[in-house]
Amino acid sequence: MLPVYRLELRVFDHCHPRLVLVHLHTPSWTLCLGCQKGCPSDSGDENVERGNWSSKREYMLSMIGYAVGLGNVWRFPYLAYKNGGGAFLIPYTIMLAVAGIPLFFVESSFGQFCSQGPINVWKAVPMLQGVGVAMMLVSTLVTIYYNVIIAYSLYYLFVSFQSHLPWSCSSGSWNCTSTPGGQLHETHRPFIYYRVTLARPELFCARVCDGSFAGRCNESVFGGSAALPVCNVTGTLKVPSEAYWDEVVLQRSAGMDETGPVLWHLALCLLLAWVLIGAALFKGIKSSGKVVYFTAIFPYVVLIILLVRGLTLEGALDGIEYYIGTKSDLSKLSEAGVWKDAATQIFFSLSIASGGVTALSSYNKFHNNCYKDSIVVCVTNCATSVFAGFAIFSILGHMAHVYQKPVSEVANAGFGLAFIAYPDALSQLPVAPLWSVLFFFMLLTLGLDSQFASIEVISTCLQDSFPTILKSGRGFVTASVCIVLFLLGLPCITRAGIYWVTLIDHFCSGWVLLVAGLLEFIGLFYIYGGNRFIEDIEMMIGTKSALFWLWWRICWFALTPLVLLVILAWSWYTFTPPTYGPVGYPSWALSLGWCMITFCLMWIPAVAVRRVLGARGNLWQRLKAACTATDDWGPYLDRHRGERYSRQRKRDTVELHADVFVIANNDICP
Question: What positions belong to coiled-coil segments (predicted)?
Fold first, then answer.
């Protein structure tokens, strides 16, 4: 047996005294000082160069905050209601087990194993490194419009700090009346009259009158101001919250061709959103890990408060009945569209295949149990979606009761729920500003958590790709990314901004992610090797039985790729051009949408061709070389590489550290 001597060295510089081991393996010998690469740092980081999460709690909160986003609040409840209520939970749970958790487990293991971001992890299969580039680009595009939504939330948050909500009839901004004779209109909603002078009053009148000039538009005068349009028709009218959203917040133009100027109230909110994100990420995960203690937990506090308040309102139980109660329709399970909606919601609500899971997990310590983490995060995400539905539909049920309408006519998703239906419902409550502040502050924190991870994807990819230039300038990288993305987001806060947001969301957050996710499975389990990848995971979490891996093998080799392929084919087959309400998009805008998809995906074949051309030999040898892992692929630290991933280095090097010459061989630390 080789002798091992234990020494205590005291180095009088910035390092603390440290206990080190000297191994006498060969005539050459190893001396490891506390600040050498691979040794634990004073901060407790296992990986000194890249850094690690300060604690397991920070990682879990960051991952939950990333997975739990706006879609959990404004999309899932509506999908559940639309697809059979409680019956929707059956395909939703099945898709979670078959598609969601398996892919999440793959990505978190992939990033943790090599401690690299979405691009550098593909040193495992260099030919598919373009998949990581596509993930980074789609995260960039999504981040641009997602922060605009945060800007909307900030604006609503600020205007809620007043005695009356500005979209309520009691605010004085609207003249809300009923039909002649004192009877409510057939829609059971009040008429609204805009109290500011409009540049094009006929447009406002047309929108209020259901988008047509079938009604008779008169002119009236309020308080001696300029003439304003009044619609006297029997069609559906806008409620104040919808008119406030269109005419005050967005100042929405008639279409994407009418861009208009930048809206400075939204520009300032967008700037503030980027300042908040930049400040939270200025020191990377070390600073964002502290922020998520609030941003990841606060939404749950608000949801509980909203649910408790909602259940005390008249009509709340009717809303819950529509959402997931006795009105559940099991016959919906026979419709293919229900299963497609369940799979799509699982895929996008977990934020997989966009690089965020890989980037965040790359800062874990090597032996972290990524398997348990994946289960906890995925189950928490889906449970949050279900729970949020109760909070949302309890208040929508009260809104339906006030308007004497079925819940189906007030339920909505996306912008319609977050900025029209729910604010309208909140305005009906006592102390309405308080509930509005809580709701929009919750949307703000939900959005910020997701943005933290998206920006981390971009920063991690840049620093991993250019380590010598950017590794020591984390704050500079974060600030630069935020400034550039703020400027790129300015078209989204013009009068046509909502059309840009909808366009990017429609094209970029769908197919690119599905293609990337499908190629992940092909690359890892059919090129790199599924058994090899399982052995890599066991290096981190310990050896497991064959029975343990049976379900994961079934999913990884067959079920999950098949589900992704079906969703991709279905999305292609059922594709319809995007619209915003009744407003369609011009042909040049649709072409731009396809160009965004092409720009993200083109790097996959481009990088593959470059790798093949850069290899040597005949075509088969080139393909084989392009699909073979690089020499530096594997665990980041030498002490974790073991015999499977031993690297060839110079056996003897001389390093100068802390005024002490250290002769080091291949093993840096025990």
Answer: none
